[in-house]
Amino acid sequence: MAKNSVEINASSNPSTDTSIGFETMRQKKRKSQLTWYVFLLPSFLGILLFMVYPIVESFRLSFFQSNGTIENFIGLANFKLVLTSATFWNSVWNTFFIGIFQILITIPLGFIFASLINSTPRGQNFFKVVYFLPNVTSIVAAAMIFQFVLHPEMGIVNFALEAVGLPSPGWFSDPSTSKWGVIFLAVWHWIGFVIIICLANLQAISPEMYEAAKIDGASGIQQWFFITIPNMAGTFAFLLITGWIGALQRFNEVYVLGGPNGSPARSIQTMGAFIYERGFTGFEFGVASAATYIMFIIILIFTFINLKVSKMKL
């Protein structure tokens, strides 16, 4: 009888029921987490296969002389070859020249357009769509269109220049003007993104600041210089960093316009095109891998400089 009462008391003990309940909840939580891990597994495997593995393999190949089948360890010889190559430094110069003027033109011009759109009471959505359309256009398709737009004989730009008595340059056939053709294409393609980002920040500035400035007698231009521009510092820093990263990785448009060697006369060959030419045209995968890591270091240095100049913390 006493034994039965102990068993009844044990079975009716609240602490025992609570521990069983907690254990059931833990099992359900583990099962739920396992389900999410199963769903994440394909993405995780994709990252390992298409991102982590190429990075590691490229680093390994940079120390080998490799044509894809035969490999020979040569240490730092690939890095020395790239750093002493006049063709590589020419591609660095082309990359920086195009990137600098793209940024210098696009960010100020995009900010001005965004300010004008923001001051327009009606039709803002229409202007957003119109200016952003080039950004969603494939850069390959845009480059092919610009080949016709800037054609030296049949292009609409040269036709307009001749109509007003100005000389018509051979945009993509003359080494002295080919870089500017790429710059115009880059500005046209990127300016919509700059406008949208600037417009979003402009609309986030508190109207009370402008109302206070009006009470103090500040003109529209003064408000623009002393309220709008200072409040856009973070946006300008973001656009500067993303613009530099994109500019230093430029490949698609110059490949369409001038091939892997950046014709005419390698005048538009960028670092990305140099890497492609050595790797997939010359089958020098070790040299291409070394150039890739040199480009990565250059991008890292300029990103760090941009962050410091913009007074942003890493």
From TrEMBL:
Residues 1-20 are annotated as: Disordered. Keywords: Cell membrane, Membrane, Sugar transport, Transmembrane, Transmembrane helix, Transport. Residues 92-306 form the ABC transmembrane type-1 domain. CDD domains: TM_PBP2. The chain crosses the membrane at residues 34-56, 96-117, 129-150, 180-202, 223-247, 285-307. It is a multi-pass membrane protein. It is found in: Cell membrane. The keyword Cell membrane applies. InterPro entries: ABC_transporter_permease, MetI-like, MetI-like_sf. The keyword Transmembrane helix applies. It comes from the Bacteria. Belongs to the binding-protein-dependent transport system permease family. This is ABC-type sugar transport system permease subunit. It comes from Aquibacillus albus.
